[in-house]
Structures are given as C-alpha cells and as structure tokens.
UniProtKB/TrEMBL annotation:
It comes from Paraferrimonas sedimenticola. It comes from the Bacteria. It holds the Pfam family Pyr_redox_2. Residues 6-335 form the FAD/NAD(P)-binding domain. GO terms for molecular function: NADH dehydrogenase (ubiquinone) activity; NADH dehydrogenase activity. Keywords: FAD, Flavoprotein, NAD, Oxidoreductase. Belongs to the NADH dehydrogenase family. The keyword Flavoprotein applies. This is NADH dehydrogenase.
Amino acid sequence: MAQLEKIVIVGGGAAGMEIATKLGHKVGRKNKAHVTLIDMAEAHVWKPLLHEVATGALDEGIDAVSYRGHAKAHGYHFQQGALQDVDRDNRQVILAPISDEKGNELLPSRRIDYDYLVIAIGSVANDFNIPGVLEHCVFLDTTEQAMDIRKILLNKFMRYASHQQLEDRIKVAIVGAGATGVEMSAEMHNAVNSLRGFGYKISTDLLDVTLVEADDRILPKVEKEQISASVAKQLNAIGVDVRTGTRIVEVDETGLTTADGERIDADMVVWSTGVKAPDFLKDIGGLESNHINQLVVKGTCQTTRDERVFSIGDCTALQQPDGSWVPPRGQAARQEALMVADNIISMLKGGTADKEYIYKDLGSLVNMSKFHTVGNLMSFLGGGVLVEGKIARFVYTSLYRRHLIEIHGFWRGTLMMFMKGINRIVRPHLKLH
Ligand SMILES: Cc1cc2nc3c(=O)[nH]c(=O)nc-3n(C[C@H](O)[C@H](O)[C@H](O)COP(=O)(O)OP(=O)(O)OC[C@H]3O[C@@H](n4cnc5c(N)ncnc54)[C@H](O)[C@@H]3O)c2cc1C
C-alpha cells in the first residue's frame, strides 16, 4: 500500500488551528493524507483574548483548547515541540528537546518528516533594539506571558489591600497604542473595579496607567482618525494618561526615558509596539526572509524558494498586487489558512497551488473592556462603516464566535459561546490565582 503523504503544520494559533481542522476534515479523516500539527504549547488560546488573560477577565483554563483532544476529534495528529530548524534536503522539521521545569530532559531533539510543510508560528513584540526592553518589560505574546502579567498585578494589589504600601500608587506604562495597548489599558481599569467586588480595598485612583505612542495619534494603523479620537476620549474619561508623539529610547527597572529626556516612572512596563517574526526564522532552512524575519511568500503562500513549504499568518511577508503588505491580523491569518488548505489539497491530487491570496480588510474593532467598543466595518468598501456601542461589541465577539465554530463545528462552537455567557453570570468575574 502506498504511503500517505505527510502534511506538517507548525504553530496552532489563529492560522494553524484553522488549517489543521480543515485538512483534518477533508483529507485526514478520509485517510487521504497524514496531517500533523506541532505546537510548543499543550493548548490553544486565541491570541486576541490574551489581554483578558493578563488581567484575569478570562480564565485560560476554561477557554483553552487541548491540542491532543482537538486533534483526535478532527482527524489530525498532534506533537508537542518547538520548531528549531527545517532540513529541506531531507524534508524534515527539527524540534528542540523538551525539558521539565527542573531542566531534566524529557524528550530529545526530534526530526519529523513532511511532504508539505506549513509554517504558522506567529509573531512576537518588536523591541526595535531599544536598550532595556527585553530585560525590563513584560510582553503579551504567549499565554504564559499573559499569566505572568496577571501574577505581577495581583501581587501588587495584594500588598495594597493589606495596607503595606499605601503611600504609593501602582504605575503601569503600556508602550504602543495599537489595538493591544488600548484594549489592555481599558481592561486594567476594569480589573481594578472588579477586584473591589472581591473585598480588595482598592480603587482605580490607585492605578496610574500611561499609554505611550510614538505616532501623533493612538491606533495609528486604523485609517479613520475619527476612531482614534473617540477611543482617546474614552481612555481619558476612565483615567488613562495618553501620551502620543512620545518615543521611548530606554527602559530601566524604574521606568521609561523618552527621546526628549523626560522620565515616565513605572512599576511595570507592558511592551506592545509592532510585531516581528521570531528571530530564528531569519535563516531557517535557507528560506527567504525580510527585515522583521517573516518568511517571504508568493500569492499562493508558498515560500519563494520551496513550493512545498508554505507560510501563513503573522510570520509571513506577502506583498499584494497594489504593493502593500498583508498586515499581521487574525482575519488575514484565518483567510490564508483556509486558502492554503485548498492549495495543498489540489497538490495532493496532482494539481498545482492555484489560489492566490488577496487581503480583504473586513474592518477593525477596538474593545475597551466594558467601557466602549468602536471600529470600522467592511473597510474594503472605500472607507467602510463606522460602528460603536452594542453593535460594535456584538461584531467584536462574533469574530471569536466564528473562530470557535470553525474549529469545533457549528453546534459545539455555539454551545461553547453559550457556556461562556453562562460562566460570566455564575463564575467570579476575575481569575484571582
Ligand atoms: C491582545 C491582542 C489582541 C488582538 N486583537 C486582534 C483583533 O481584534 N483582530 C485581529 O484581526 N487581530 C488581532 N490580534 C492579532 C492576532 O492575534 C494575530 O494576528 C493572529 O493571532 C496571528 O495568527 P498566527 O496563527 O499567525 O499566530 P498566533 O495566533 O500567535 O499562533 C502562533 C502559534 O505558534 C506557536 N509557536 C510559536 N513559536 C513556535 C515554535 N518555535 N514551535 C512551535 N510552535 C510555535 C504558538 O504557541 C502559537 O500557538 C491581536 C493580538 C493581540 C496580542
């Protein structure tokens, strides 16, 4: 019997989970190909929810999807491990050894064969080589980092609540006022409000959040300035100190230094400026990469030097016919994933990868916790439609709803959203451990 062709997907995020599920259903379950998903984590958490994990508004233990369980139910296989290199001559991915918390090796480095490889390992915050960022900032790239932020915040609140530190305020600086920075600022205020309900004797007056942006407006990537203005107004109203046109040149243990020499004191600095692909992708397998380590691909999402190696999502550099680059967005990751699944299926049948990806901007929404939601829908229709309030909030949550439906199926996905709604009523509003 002829051996099944092997499709290996590395990275089970917004892009990787979608393609693994689609290929699992279309070819894995029908025994037409062997599909394997590899991720360094054990469970999938949808990245746009990480700021809620960081403030405790979301319990990752409930929302995380176990890769192993999902793989079994959806016709693909799962291997845990971190991609280290690609050996294109032998068509193998090389995974780093896995150790336990004490450093004891659990699994040695492994090689996994592929006939088609999809790299979907996402992005990390770009430190732009600014001194002190890596040493003194916290990041929001992984679930573990989000949980670390929660721990730091809770420890500080605990000290306040026990009156040990009443002379000080808690100073948090968030650098980068894109959607992540803005949503995080609002979510922190909401978390402090909610903590009062748990008996913590604190108020938002004790929290100083400074949101720093080098551009002259917040949300600089959002086309409509009207949206930036509306969000800035809301942030000011809840007490966030918004500083635009402020470039950070150094970070140390007590805060930030701006290009004008001004000091911004901070007990914690969240770094959420632009993204780059992980550094090790720069030279992986001799594939072409750009200045921020993304793998350069053709319209089909095949890498420029190897048509059996695809790249999708944030780690990908894909230039559009109009010269622009596909942005690192959840919607692009998802659309690319679904298209690449079709291209691989066509290649499995002896055809070619004939679908080319054109980014269709469905719009951007910014959710400031319970305070406000605003954004632009259907931006591809010449400017789009401005939405605010409940409608915007509904569309914002529908992005996650669609993700759940695509990876779990209609009934299960809908049921999960329903249970999430019930959990909001019956469970504590914050995760305090
Ligand atoms: C707080 C926040 C809010 C956001 N809000 C929005 C939004 O509202 N709308 C929107 O469109 N986008 C939003 N984004 C951006 C969106 O999350 C990303 O564009 C999207 O997740 C990219 O998908 P991806 O699959 O490329 O990467 P990810 O979803 O980051 O997945 C990458 C996966 O690869 C795994 N991985 C990483 N390195 C390795 C390795 N070496 N080996 C094996 N596995 C590895 C990771 O564990 C992860 O599972 C937001 C991002 C953040 C942080």
